[in-house]
Structure formats: structure tokens, C-alpha cells
Amino acid sequence: MSIKYKINTMISVDQFIELLNESTLGERRPIDDRECMEGMVSNSNFVVTAWDDEKMIGIARSITDFSYACYLSDLAVHKHYQKKGVGKKLQIITQEQLGPKCKLMLIAAPAANAYYEHIGFTNNPRCWVLDRDQDISS
């Protein structure tokens, strides 16, 4: 198996959705909302992908300033390629492109907590989420 990794290679929304479905991450993403998915692809400013020939089999999709913070919003690996180091390599390449003080941050699915701890991430309980439909005006 010869996996090639690419930085900021253009991908289609269909390729992204297909990978999310094949990785199980599609269960937690709005894959039926094409407009949202298009925004997710086009507005990411740093993407590392993994390819087996012409098939995208992994993605690390981030939003970053490259200096202080990098939010890894999607890390997905096709289920047939999981547990082969693809996800870890995607994160290593992501981190190599960031400045020396830039932190890599993510919100893990509950089932993935052990994985992130295993590869060196530390748990930070200070994450807060504000859903779009919440009223914060009062």
C-alpha cells in the first residue's frame, strides 16, 4: 500500500462526503446539507489529504492562523485504512506545517478519546460550544 499525502490539494464536495460516510464521521456531520458541506470545503484554509492512487482515503481539515491556534475540525480515515497510521500521519504533517508555538486543537467524538490520548493529545475540559440557535442576548 503506497499512500500519498498532499497539502491543500483541491477536493470536491462529493469526495469529502464520500470519505465522511466511509469513515463513520458522516454520522456527526451535515452530509445532507450540500450548501453547508460546500462551505466546509471551500472555507477551510489548511487541508492535508491521504490518497491511495486516485481515491482520497483520509483528510485532516483545519482552520488556522499557523502561528497560535489550529482547529482540526475534521480528521477522517476510510474505515478500510484505519489502524494503519494514516490518521496519525495526517496529524503529523498538519503539525509540521504550523509555527513552533501553534497548538493543534480538536473536539473528539466520544469513541475517539482513547485514540487521541494514545497519540499524545492532552484532554482540556475548557471547551465551550454555542449553538447557532441559542439566545445569548439576555
Automatic annotation (TrEMBL):
Domain of life: Bacteria
PROSITE patterns referenced in this protein's UniProt entry, alphabetically: GNAT (PS51186)
Molecular-function annotations in GO: acyltransferase activity, transferring groups other than amino-acyl groups
Gene3D superfamilies reported for this sequence: 3.40.630.30
SUPFAM superfamilies: Acyl-CoA N-acyltransferases (Nat)
Classification via Pfam families: Acetyltransf_10
Signal peptide start and end residues: none
Domain N-acetyltransferase, chain residue ranges per copy: 3-138
Protein name: N-acetyltransferase domain-containing protein
Classification lineage: Bacteria, Pseudomonadati, Pseudomonadota, Candidatius Mariprofundia, Mariprofundales
